Amino acid sequence: MKNIGFLSFGHWTPSPHSQTRSASDALLQSIDLAVAAEELGADGAYFRVHHFARQLASPFPLLAAVGARTSRIEIGTGVIDMRYENPLYMAEDAGAADLIAGGRLQLGISRGSPEQVVDGFRYFGYVPEGDDHAAMARQHTEVFLQVLEGEGFAQPNPRPMFPNPPGLLRIEPHSAGLRERIWWGAGSRATAEWTAQQGMNLMSSTLLTEDTGVPFHELQAEQIQRFRDAWGAAGHERAPRVSVSRSILPITSDVDRQYFYRETASRDQVGHLEGGLARFGKTYAGEPDKLVEELAEDSAVAAADTLLVTVPNQLGVDYNAHLIESVLKDVAPGLGWR
């Protein structure tokens, strides 16, 4: 058995060829797709966060709305860029959204990826020391994780407007258990080890910011193993979770074939990202039996407990629900995931 969810980047464009032509479309269709995915039996609805782009950006209103419209499915992000975040305000928003959803949030956070503007976090008021924005993201994360523990830290006003509980005050609303449902989007093996040391779950995508010459899935499987080894060495009491994302496009109709036939020859790619080598995983596209054979050889997918299937959201809710259903019914059973 494997948890299977979708991951949407929430792209929108006013093009007549897009089914998602505005920010309103992207948000409302994301809610509808989450509802449809839950009805189909999927386990998770996850959303990417990008600033200064025609994509999903501020996640918590969306997560809260999805939480109010659904009852079972996990709701998460993949990922929130911590360079942009006020960790205390974020803890308030996350606590509220998690309570609305009944404790179903699974928040993926990270240092973030290259953005649409240069140092966009500076426009949000965050200036890293020594220009080390990765360190700033980790500092924001440290504060965020600490306040999610629910311990008081703020000195109460001796003459408050309303009565206070005794002792130092904490961020409210507090959602118990959310701290254990925070994931770090790790782009390397070393970052995965750091993630384990911090007691966060591991979220790994179809991109690694390093290359050793081996196939992507083997490098990612090594990353996962290093994470689990580091988790054990850190002595955490609970079992961690690991997710990977994949582009999986079952071709079961002429429409599928029209959209994705060219992707059937997809291969791993190696390129340059922020001055270093990076390895990108391939797209899985083809007839369901072919996908079953190929995915059975993907060692990272086998090692993860959660699979996030990226969806082409601009094709609309109905079509993306069809893709999710195809993965769940035409591919997953052949791999023992359902």
From TrEMBL:
> What organism is recorded for this protein?
Terrabacter terrae
One Pfam family from the record: Bac_luciferase
Name of the protein in its database record: LLM class flavin-dependent oxidoreductase
- InterPro entries per the record? Bact_Lucif_Oxidored, Luciferase-like_dom, Luciferase-like_sf
State the superkingdom. Bacteria
Luciferase-like domain location is: 9-248
Family matches, as SUPFAM superfamilies: Bacterial luciferase-like (SSF51679)
